[in-house]
What we know:
- By secondary structure, the chain is of the alpha+beta class.
- The protein has one domain.
- The protein contains one helix and three strands, in the order βββα.
- It has one helix at 27-66; strands at 4-7, 10-16, 22-24.
- It has a three-stranded antiparallel beta sheet, with no helix packed on it.
- The longest helix is centred in the C-terminal third of the chain and has 40 residues, at 27-66.
- The radius of gyration is 24 Å and the shape is rod-shaped.
- The chain starts with a strand and ends with a helix.
- The relative contact order is 0.09.
- The mean pLDDT is 93.
Amino acid sequence: MNPVVPIEDNPGYVKDLRSSAILNNDLHALAEHKQKKKTLKQINSMQNEINMLKEELQKIKNHLQLS
């Protein structure tokens, strides 16, 4: 592993001394981000399902009115 040093002003980040990259090492923030992403995916999936059900219901209503 490349040597890293903590950044004084922000303890959630470290600097990789070989590449000079700034890296986030806050595992709690990563877990929060993953949970938010999962929740958003579930919400989008539910919205798509609701829209599909609305369309199907409208088709049924239209079919019943024609009969």
